[in-house]
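Next up, sample data:
>
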Amino acid sequence: PKGTMAFTGKYEFEGDDNYDAFVQKIGLPSDKVEMGRNCKIVTEVVQNGNDFTWTQHFPGGRTTTNTFSVGKEADLETMGGKKFKATVKLEDGKLVADFPNYHHTTEISGGKLVEISTCAGVVYKRTSKKIA
């Protein structure tokens, strides 16, 4: 149903589209590009009302955690490790945020976590399946 969010869970990377074109557009350093390609990232989401803790576990033990509340400015970190401020909004059941050089939406669709990032006309889509 619209208006309800059920993001809480653990999701494992399943596949993506346009990775190379996207990371080139956002200027990700080549070592990070290789690291992120077909990377079995596990995304762990804990949602408590409008408050979220969003952790990405990378192979090799590195993690990135972003904590935010819908509608309030928060300190976030990009996949390249850059820190920035953004306000995450909720639009039609999707979480929407503007990163420094791309627009990002996340939704649960068909039980999967679907993340779409857009930069200068390049659309990068990452799908993760629920594992817990």
Remarks:
- The chain has a mean pLDDT of 90.
- Helices lie at 19-26, 30-36.
- The longest strand covers residues 9-17.
- The radius of gyration is 14 Å.
